[in-house]
Design a protein that fits this description.
alpha/beta, Rossmann fold, six-stranded parallel beta sheet, two-stranded parallel ribbon, 10 helices, 41% helix
């Protein structure tokens, strides 16, 4: 592409959207929209927005992510996670743009003992997972060029996520109980954004050829796996500089002792082999990615 591409980022103020804005800034002209400027539940507004932006690439980082609340707000979850991606896919096809969309490990039921592959049959346990699966299906049905990246346990230095919740609770309490029988791959928003940028940049340069060879669904997570309890302990092991050496005691508990409105899969670990085979892309181990995010937080504290 001889000119700088126009890149529309939907959900630009969320934890992933902020990192996408940073990562893609050198790539092209950014058009950033968020919930105050685009109502994802109104298809006509969304269509008009895309047509005004005339993008070459659409990065959809917007989602309804309140997993438990989705059980009592299924219509809203479906509107944001299923209908809106379908609308974006239709408009991407019309504009001949590439659509990049993020889905979730929660499309699976967690019953498999090994990592989930893209060819495994989805069977979501909750409304959130069902809405994200419906979004994937709507994108595929539209028939345009697309990349669906299923990821898991996303966190980062901004937004609402497990890492920041643990740090907040750690300041408030001497002891925390965290479930130890759900396993996944914590994935930083920084790693997700940078990997997405690398892949999209190569696609725009023509490195991967026709979309017939690469358009589709891929798993994209940091490597390795851990329980929520193990993740919490890793966070506090690295939080000494943020907490002046005082960290809470973290106790492991089974999911049965922490009931939630939505069921969670026990095994959320995704296989990234397809991503590596197609794009030569491998995200950092989750421990290294956590180190990077913690360093960002330490530097932010030092500047404050």
């Amino acid at each position: 592409m001889s000119r700088r591409p126009r890149i529309l980022i939907v959900g630009a103020t969320g934890q992933l959207g902020r990192e996408l804005r940073r990562s893609f800034a050198p790539v092209g002209e950014i058009v950033a929209v968020h919930r105050q400027t685009a109502d994802l539940t109104v298809p006509e507004q969304l269509r008009a927005l895309v047509r005004r932006a005339a993008p070459d690439v659409i990065l959809n980082a917007a989602a309804y992510t309140a997993v438990d609340r989705a059980e009592s707000e299924p219509e809203l979850a479906m509107a944001v996670n299923a209908q809106a991606p379908g609308t974006l896919a239709e408009e991407a096809l019309r504009a001949r743009a590439l659509l990049v969309h993020y889905s979730t490990d929660y499309v699976f039921d967690g019953s498999k003992t090994g990592p989930w592959e893209e060819t495994d049959t989805p069977n979501p346990l909750n409304v959130y997972g069902a809405s994200k699966l419906a979004g994937e299906q709507a994108i595929r049905a539209a028939g345009g060029r697309h990349l669906i990246f299923r990821t898991s346990w996303v966190y980062g230095p901004h937004g609402n996520n497990f890492l920041l919740t643990m740090l907040r609770l750690g300041r408030e309490r001497r002891e925390l109980s965290v479930v130890n029988d759900q396993f996944g791959s914590p994935t930083s928003s920084i790693e997700l954004a940078d990997a997405t940028q690398a892949i999209v940049s190569r696609i725009l340069s023509g490195q991967y050829g026709s979309a017939d060879g690469w358009s589709g669904t891929y798993h994209m997570t940091c490597s390795g796996s851990v329980s929520w309890y193990g993740f919490a302990r890793a966070i506090f092991a690295r939080a000494q500089r943020l907490f002046d050496g005082k960290v809470p005691l973290v106790k492991p508990i089974p999911s049965s002792e922490y009931p939630t409105a939505a069921l969670r899969p026990r095994n959320s670990v995704l296989s990234n082999e397809k991503l590596l085979a197609q794009f030569g892309m491998q995200l950092a181990p989750w421990e290294s990615a956590l180190d990077e995010v913690m360093q960002v937080l330490v530097m932010a504290k030092a500047r404050a």
